[in-house]
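**Entry details**
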Amino acid sequence: MTKSIYLNPTEAYCGKSLVTLGLIEHLLRNTQKVGIFRPIIKKRRKDERDKDIDLVLTHFKLNLDYEETYGFTEDRVHDLEARGKHDDIVDHIIRKYKALEERLDFIVIEGSDYESKNSVQEFNLNLEIAKNLGSPVIVIGRADEENPIEELVYPITQTVETFGQKGCQVVKVIVNRVPNAIHDDLEQVLVSRLPKHLKDFDLIPQDEVLNSPTVGEIAEALGAKVLYGENQLNRLAYYNTIAAMQPHHYLGRVKENCLVITPGDRGDIVMTTLQAHQSVNYPSFAGILLTTGFHLEEAYQKLLEGLPDMIPIMSVETNTYDTARLVSNVHSYIKPINHKKIALALQLFDKNVKARELFENMSVMAPSNVLTPKMFEYNLFKKAKSNKKRIVLPEGEDERILRAAEVLVSKDLVEVIILGDEDQIIQHSNRLGITFDPKKVKIINPVTYTKLSDYVVNLYELRKHKGVNLDMAKDLLSDATYFGTMMVLMGDADGMVSGAVNTTQHTIRPALQLIKTKPGFSVVSSVFFMCLEEKVLVYGDCAVNPNPSAEQLAEIALSSSETTKAFGLDPKVAMLSYSSGSSGKGEEVEKVRKATDLAKMGDPKLKIEGPIQYDAAVDIGVGQKKMPGSEVAGKASVLIFPDLNTGNNTYKAVQRETGAIAIGPVLQGLNKPVNDLSRGCTVPDIVNTVVITAIQAQNED
């Protein structure tokens, strides 16, 4: 079920707060657990809250803490980007959003304001966040009479196209602030430019009240000093005019709710304006803004102090024309205290936006099939935290292992056990600037471990039929990999990760000898979680079995299916070969065909297809053409390769050419989880493999 919607304006000042108000008002008619989340807010003073968040929380009296409703301030994002910590930005935003999502039925996510100079960077970050959160998107544009309609439509269509290309579901286009003069022409152009599913767009007309800033907003933006009329700062300024000519000339040019801008030494203009404001023959004024830092004559000040209920009179230091330019750039906001604007915004939304139809369509809409690497990683981390396991890392001398341990502990994902000499490891860590919490990281020296004698006896009992005596058992346990494997077997650790220094064979051999395979399993195999830009695929077996038989291949398929389900993915298994269906002949094709049949017998409910070519397995167009009606063709999530040569080369080619993150190899078929690392692994590779090992241990429970 869809639990959020992402509002992405195409540019600054699109009036997204009106849309946010309207959507939340509509949602609250059906449920009480509604919230707002903003991934990035503008830089504010320390004591100032984001205007849109404050508006929603205050007006709707939502039971949310302000701090939980946003990810980062704009300046913090720029700081992290400058330090190359882009992934930290996305990770943190996902975590904060997910924490909010767990408590609420629906969240309106408000994108950036696009008021900074880095609007392209902002756009790309909003696109990445929307995709990672899997939220349907409403694109909000704005219109005006100053630009040609083609220029108004272009950012809307480009935003729709770009979000769609990246796998985001754009469900609605809303254009705000549409002047009546261009309404019909704009509608006609949008119909011709937008894709078919977005033809039912909404146009919200321009409104003078909503578009006009209050005098108080102008004073705040300019840093003006309010001299008189502080209780009238909510007056709207529809226009502004410079008054520098003689009063009788200037009076003929004023309009309703006009802000008068005049030098501070023009007491005659001030007095004329106040008189005109009280006269039924002239329009009402919004206020008076005195420029150049001049002060009114003392006689004028005395007169003004004796007048009741005056319109605001303010003062700034800037010259008249610069002041007028600054006033023209002040934009209106809907504030919690401005009930008239709130009511008008909700009225405009209800009248012009088909919200009921939008949410009805969303309720039956297929959920986004985009599972980004970031969201997959978030789900893994969340699951690991839910029941922390003890994972032993035998290669404590390696810097990457120590740095990964620091990350694992800082994120509170697992309890880490590092093998090696404690003094040496601590000294090495200190040199690297790594500090460990002794309550969360246990460093064990196999040579001095209190249970070493028990381990020796147990290893001897397990391997004496192979000629191993007690001395040989003790000698084997001086090897950290054997010792770590024994910790897992004896229940002193829940899983082990090795291979950053040692070979795959060195990691797997002790596991096969001591932990052994699960009942019903004849082979240990492996999978890689291939995190592509918009989905996660499972590749097996790309690391262990050089040339599996049909029976072994069927077992690998069934094991991979179970592993896939254990990590929250839906297994649709493709048994890969160089031909699809019944078109090909040959020994290798027949092996895959037999393996497919055996796997179906092993799990009749499993969605599996084979033999099938890679393109037919993952491309919906090719798949339905080559194997029409197949549940797997074009939609495969698990790809089983016929041999190690094909699988290993394919995963590495995909990883290098697409930039995919390859998590693994994840070993399957053992009684307890032991996983292997590539000797070229990075710190994130180690972290992900440890987390996967912890989740495997949870599943063993």
